Protein backbone atom coordinates (compact mmCIF):
# COMPACT_ATOMS: atom_id res chain seq x y z
CA UNK A 1 0.00 0.00 0.00
CA UNK A 2 1.36 3.38 -0.95
CA UNK A 3 -1.00 5.36 1.26
CA UNK A 4 -3.41 3.36 3.44
CA UNK A 5 -0.83 1.08 5.04
CA UNK A 6 -1.03 -1.19 8.07
CA UNK A 7 0.23 1.71 10.14
CA UNK A 8 -2.53 4.02 8.87
CA UNK A 9 -5.26 1.48 9.68
CA UNK A 10 -3.83 0.56 13.06
CA UNK A 11 -3.59 4.22 14.05
CA UNK A 12 -7.10 4.89 12.76
CA UNK A 13 -8.58 1.94 14.71
CA UNK A 14 -6.69 2.95 17.83
CA UNK A 15 -7.83 6.58 17.73
CA UNK A 16 -11.48 5.61 17.19
CA UNK A 17 -11.31 3.11 20.05
CA UNK A 18 -9.85 5.41 22.70
CA UNK A 19 -11.56 8.69 21.84
CA UNK A 20 -14.64 8.08 24.04
CA UNK A 21 -12.81 7.24 27.27
CA UNK A 22 -13.36 9.66 30.15
CA UNK A 23 -11.39 10.09 33.39
CA UNK A 24 -12.68 9.15 36.83
CA UNK A 25 -11.17 9.34 40.30
CA UNK A 26 -8.05 7.31 41.12
CA UNK A 27 -9.14 4.76 43.73
CA UNK A 28 -10.08 1.14 44.31
CA UNK A 29 -13.61 0.68 42.93
CA UNK A 30 -16.10 -1.39 44.93
CA UNK A 31 -19.11 -3.15 43.46
CA UNK A 32 -21.24 -0.25 44.69
CA UNK A 33 -18.94 2.25 42.95
CA UNK A 34 -19.19 0.30 39.70
CA UNK A 35 -22.99 0.18 39.95
CA UNK A 36 -23.12 3.97 40.50
CA UNK A 37 -20.85 4.52 37.48
CA UNK A 38 -22.98 2.13 35.42
CA UNK A 39 -26.12 4.12 36.19
CA UNK A 40 -24.36 7.40 35.42
CA UNK A 41 -23.10 6.15 32.05
CA UNK A 42 -26.49 4.64 31.27
CA UNK A 43 -28.23 7.95 31.90
CA UNK A 44 -25.73 9.73 29.67
CA UNK A 45 -26.39 7.20 26.91
CA UNK A 46 -30.17 7.60 27.27
CA UNK A 47 -29.86 11.40 27.10
CA UNK A 48 -27.92 11.05 23.83
CA UNK A 49 -30.58 8.75 22.38
CA UNK A 50 -33.39 11.10 23.42
CA UNK A 51 -31.59 14.00 21.78
CA UNK A 52 -31.13 12.01 18.57
CA UNK A 53 -34.83 11.12 18.51
CA UNK A 54 -35.67 14.83 18.77
CA UNK A 55 -33.23 15.75 16.00
CA UNK A 56 -34.39 12.96 13.69
CA UNK A 57 -38.11 12.49 14.41
CA UNK A 58 -38.68 10.47 11.23
CA UNK A 59 -36.39 7.69 12.45
CA UNK A 60 -37.55 4.85 14.71
CA UNK A 61 -39.25 6.21 17.80
CA UNK A 62 -37.35 6.26 21.08
CA UNK A 63 -38.05 3.22 23.27
CA UNK A 64 -36.35 3.57 26.65
CA UNK A 65 -36.75 -0.09 27.59
CA UNK A 66 -35.07 -1.22 24.38
CA UNK A 67 -32.28 1.31 24.84
CA UNK A 68 -31.61 0.11 28.41
CA UNK A 69 -31.45 -3.49 27.22
CA UNK A 70 -29.13 -2.51 24.36
CA UNK A 71 -26.78 -0.64 26.73
CA UNK A 72 -26.67 -3.65 29.06
CA UNK A 73 -25.89 -5.93 26.13
CA UNK A 74 -23.03 -3.67 25.00
CA UNK A 75 -21.63 -3.62 28.52
CA UNK A 76 -21.62 -7.41 28.89
CA UNK A 77 -20.20 -7.89 25.38
CA UNK A 78 -17.34 -5.53 26.26
CA UNK A 79 -16.65 -7.49 29.43
CA UNK A 80 -16.60 -10.83 27.63
CA UNK A 81 -14.71 -9.67 24.53
CA UNK A 82 -12.68 -6.47 25.11
CA UNK A 83 -11.74 -4.46 22.03
CA UNK A 84 -8.25 -5.56 20.95
CA UNK A 85 -7.48 -2.00 19.84
CA UNK A 86 -7.49 -0.91 23.48
CA UNK A 87 -3.79 -0.82 24.48
CA UNK A 88 -2.69 -3.99 26.25
CA UNK A 89 -1.21 -2.04 29.17
CA UNK A 90 -4.69 -0.67 29.90
CA UNK A 91 -6.42 -4.05 29.63
CA UNK A 92 -3.82 -5.55 31.97
CA UNK A 93 -3.93 -2.83 34.64
CA UNK A 94 -7.52 -1.52 34.80
CA UNK A 95 -10.67 -3.13 36.17
CA UNK A 96 -12.42 -4.54 33.06
CA UNK A 97 -15.73 -3.16 34.33
CA UNK A 98 -14.32 0.37 34.07
CA UNK A 99 -13.05 -0.31 30.55
CA UNK A 100 -16.48 -1.65 29.54
CA UNK A 101 -18.01 1.60 30.82
CA UNK A 102 -15.40 3.61 28.84
CA UNK A 103 -13.92 5.29 31.90
CA UNK A 104 -10.35 5.18 33.22
CA UNK A 105 -8.69 6.24 36.49
CA UNK A 106 -7.25 9.73 36.13
CA UNK A 107 -3.61 8.58 36.19
CA UNK A 108 -4.25 5.99 33.47
CA UNK A 109 -6.27 8.47 31.43
CA UNK A 110 -3.43 11.03 31.57
CA UNK A 111 -0.94 8.45 30.28
CA UNK A 112 -3.36 7.42 27.55
CA UNK A 113 -3.85 11.04 26.51
CA UNK A 114 -0.09 11.49 26.06
CA UNK A 115 0.09 8.31 23.99
CA UNK A 116 -2.98 9.29 21.98
CA UNK A 117 -1.59 12.75 21.20
CA UNK A 118 1.60 11.22 19.80
CA UNK A 119 -0.34 8.75 17.68
CA UNK A 120 -2.68 11.51 16.47
CA UNK A 121 0.35 13.52 15.35
CA UNK A 122 1.69 10.57 13.36
CA UNK A 123 -1.75 9.88 11.86
CA UNK A 124 -2.04 13.52 10.75
CA UNK A 125 1.38 13.21 9.06
CA UNK A 126 0.19 10.18 7.08
CA UNK A 127 -3.03 11.99 6.13
CA UNK A 128 -1.02 14.96 4.85
CA UNK A 129 1.15 12.60 2.82
CA UNK A 130 -1.95 11.00 1.27
CA UNK A 131 -3.38 14.42 0.43
CA UNK A 132 -0.13 15.52 -1.26
CA UNK A 133 -0.01 12.33 -3.32
CA UNK A 134 -3.54 12.85 -4.57
CA UNK A 135 -2.87 16.52 -5.31
CA UNK A 136 0.18 15.46 -7.33
CA UNK A 137 -2.10 13.40 -9.57
CA UNK A 138 -1.49 9.93 -8.21
CA UNK A 139 -4.53 8.66 -10.16
CA UNK A 140 -4.69 11.13 -13.03
CA UNK A 141 -3.82 8.51 -15.67
CA UNK A 142 -5.95 5.76 -14.11
CA UNK A 143 -9.60 6.55 -13.58
CA UNK A 144 -11.71 6.94 -16.67
CA UNK A 145 -10.16 4.02 -18.53
CA UNK A 146 -12.76 1.31 -19.03
CA UNK A 147 -10.27 -1.44 -18.16
CA UNK A 148 -9.36 0.35 -14.94
CA UNK A 149 -13.01 0.65 -13.94
CA UNK A 150 -13.60 -3.06 -14.65
CA UNK A 151 -10.60 -4.07 -12.54
CA UNK A 152 -11.75 -1.72 -9.76
CA UNK A 153 -15.20 -3.40 -9.82
CA UNK A 154 -13.64 -6.86 -9.44
CA UNK A 155 -11.53 -5.90 -6.44
CA UNK A 156 -14.46 -4.06 -4.89
CA UNK A 157 -16.53 -7.24 -5.31
CA UNK A 158 -13.89 -9.27 -3.46
CA UNK A 159 -13.87 -6.64 -0.71
CA UNK A 160 -17.60 -7.15 -0.21
CA UNK A 161 -17.23 -10.81 0.76
CA UNK A 162 -14.90 -13.41 2.23
CA UNK A 163 -11.69 -14.80 0.75
CA UNK A 164 -11.63 -18.63 0.63
CA UNK A 165 -8.28 -19.22 -1.04
CA UNK A 166 -5.39 -17.44 -2.77
CA UNK A 167 -3.57 -19.53 -5.36
CA UNK A 168 -0.23 -18.78 -7.00
CA UNK A 169 -0.19 -20.26 -10.51
CA UNK A 170 2.17 -19.94 -13.49
CA UNK A 171 2.23 -16.21 -14.28
CA UNK A 172 -1.11 -15.62 -12.54
CA UNK A 173 -2.80 -15.40 -9.17
CA UNK A 174 -6.35 -16.52 -8.37
CA UNK A 175 -8.48 -15.38 -5.47
CA UNK A 176 -11.45 -17.60 -4.72
CA UNK A 177 -14.09 -15.74 -2.73
CA UNK A 178 -17.76 -15.57 -1.83
CA UNK A 179 -19.95 -12.50 -2.06
CA UNK A 180 -23.66 -11.72 -2.28
CA UNK A 181 -25.78 -11.17 -5.38
CA UNK A 182 -29.32 -9.80 -5.51
CA UNK A 183 -29.92 -11.43 -8.88
CA UNK A 184 -30.06 -8.18 -10.86
CA UNK A 185 -27.99 -7.82 -14.00
CA UNK A 186 -25.81 -4.77 -13.42
CA UNK A 187 -25.45 -4.27 -17.16
CA UNK A 188 -29.13 -3.30 -17.28
CA UNK A 189 -28.39 -0.26 -15.11
CA UNK A 190 -26.28 2.03 -17.24
CA UNK A 191 -25.66 5.50 -15.80
CA UNK A 192 -27.60 7.17 -18.61
CA UNK A 193 -30.68 5.05 -17.89
CA UNK A 194 -30.56 5.01 -14.11
CA UNK A 195 -33.05 7.84 -13.60
CA UNK A 196 -35.56 6.02 -15.78
CA UNK A 197 -35.80 2.99 -13.48
CA UNK A 198 -39.20 2.82 -11.80
CA UNK A 199 -38.53 1.34 -8.38
CA UNK A 200 -42.25 0.63 -7.86
CA UNK A 201 -42.16 -1.83 -10.76
CA UNK A 202 -39.65 -4.00 -8.89
CA UNK A 203 -41.21 -3.87 -5.42
CA UNK A 204 -44.35 -5.75 -4.49
CA UNK A 205 -46.26 -4.62 -1.42
CA UNK A 206 -48.15 -6.88 0.94
CA UNK A 207 -51.73 -6.01 1.86
CA UNK A 208 -50.48 -3.91 4.75
CA UNK A 209 -48.13 -1.95 2.51
CA UNK A 210 -44.96 -3.74 3.62
CA UNK A 211 -42.38 -4.53 0.98
CA UNK A 212 -41.90 -8.16 0.04
CA UNK A 213 -38.63 -9.09 1.73
CA UNK A 214 -37.96 -11.88 -0.79
CA UNK A 215 -37.46 -9.27 -3.51
CA UNK A 216 -34.40 -8.03 -1.63
CA UNK A 217 -32.92 -11.34 -0.42
CA UNK A 218 -29.32 -11.64 -1.55
CA UNK A 219 -27.86 -15.00 -2.54
CA UNK A 220 -24.31 -15.99 -1.71
CA UNK A 221 -22.24 -16.77 -4.79
CA UNK A 222 -18.73 -18.17 -5.20
CA UNK A 223 -16.40 -16.48 -7.69
CA UNK A 224 -12.78 -16.61 -8.82
CA UNK A 225 -10.84 -13.44 -9.61
CA UNK A 226 -7.86 -13.94 -11.90
CA UNK A 227 -4.84 -11.65 -12.10
CA UNK A 228 -3.04 -12.64 -15.31
CA UNK A 229 0.56 -11.94 -16.27
CA UNK A 230 1.35 -11.44 -12.62
CA UNK A 231 4.55 -10.50 -10.86
CA UNK A 232 4.13 -10.73 -7.09
CA UNK A 233 5.62 -7.72 -5.35
CA UNK A 234 4.67 -8.70 -1.79
CA UNK A 235 2.60 -11.53 -0.39
CA UNK A 236 2.16 -12.18 3.31
CA UNK A 237 0.23 -15.42 3.05
CA UNK A 238 -2.85 -15.52 5.28
CA UNK A 239 -3.94 -18.54 7.31
CA UNK A 240 -7.47 -18.96 5.99
CA UNK A 241 -10.13 -20.88 7.89
CA UNK A 242 -13.71 -21.31 6.69
CA UNK A 243 -16.98 -22.25 8.38
CA UNK A 244 -20.71 -22.20 7.68
CA UNK A 245 -23.05 -19.91 9.56
CA UNK A 246 -26.56 -20.75 10.81
CA UNK A 247 -28.05 -19.81 7.41
CA UNK A 248 -25.77 -22.20 5.55
CA UNK A 249 -23.59 -19.41 4.11
CA UNK A 250 -19.84 -19.91 4.09
CA UNK A 251 -17.58 -17.34 5.71
CA UNK A 252 -13.89 -17.10 6.48
CA UNK A 253 -11.45 -15.29 8.73
CA UNK A 254 -9.97 -13.35 5.79
CA UNK A 255 -11.23 -10.39 3.77
CA UNK A 256 -10.00 -7.19 2.12
CA UNK A 257 -10.33 -4.10 4.29
CA UNK A 258 -8.70 -1.69 1.84
CA UNK A 259 -7.06 -1.59 -1.56
CA UNK A 260 -5.34 0.73 -4.00
CA UNK A 261 -5.32 0.24 -7.76
CA UNK A 262 -2.94 1.89 -10.24
CA UNK A 263 -2.70 1.58 -14.02
CA UNK A 264 0.74 2.49 -15.33
CA UNK A 265 2.43 1.71 -18.64
CA UNK A 266 -0.31 -0.72 -19.64
CA UNK A 267 -0.14 -2.77 -16.43
CA UNK A 268 -1.98 -2.79 -13.13
CA UNK A 269 -0.42 -2.44 -9.74
CA UNK A 270 -2.84 -3.87 -7.21
CA UNK A 271 -2.36 -3.27 -3.49
CA UNK A 272 -4.64 -5.25 -1.17
CA UNK A 273 -4.67 -5.10 2.61
CA UNK A 274 -6.12 -8.30 4.05
CA UNK A 275 -7.60 -8.69 7.52
CA UNK A 276 -6.76 -12.19 8.70
CA UNK A 277 -8.47 -11.67 12.07
CA UNK A 278 -6.39 -13.37 14.78
CA UNK A 279 -3.37 -13.41 12.45
CA UNK A 280 -3.43 -9.66 11.83
CA UNK A 281 -3.19 -7.54 8.70
CA UNK A 282 -1.47 -8.94 5.59
CA UNK A 283 -0.21 -7.34 2.38
CA UNK A 284 -0.89 -8.73 -1.11
CA UNK A 285 0.67 -6.58 -3.84
CA UNK A 286 0.66 -7.59 -7.50
CA UNK A 287 1.78 -6.20 -10.84
CA UNK A 288 -0.32 -7.75 -13.59
CA UNK A 289 -1.62 -7.45 -17.16
CA UNK A 290 -5.34 -7.95 -16.49
CA UNK A 291 -7.93 -8.42 -13.75
CA UNK A 292 -11.14 -10.41 -14.29
CA UNK A 293 -13.66 -12.52 -12.40
CA UNK A 294 -16.13 -15.29 -13.17
Helix/strand-derived category reads: alpha+beta
Note the beta-strand portion: 25-35%
Total strands = 12
Identify the overall geometry: globular
The end-to-end span amounts to 26 Å
Q: What is the C-alpha radius of gyration, as a whole number of Å?
A: 24 Å
Query: Describe the biggest sheet?
Result: 4 strands, antiparallel
Mean pLDDT: 86
Low-confidence stretches: 185-206
Helices, by number, come to: 8
Order of helix and strand elements from N to C terminus: HEHHHHEHHEEHEEEEEEEE
Widest beta sheet: strand line-up: 3-4-5-12
Q: Helical percent range?
A: 25-40%
Characteristic terms for this protein:
four-stranded antiparallel β-sheet; 8 helices; 294 residues; alpha+beta
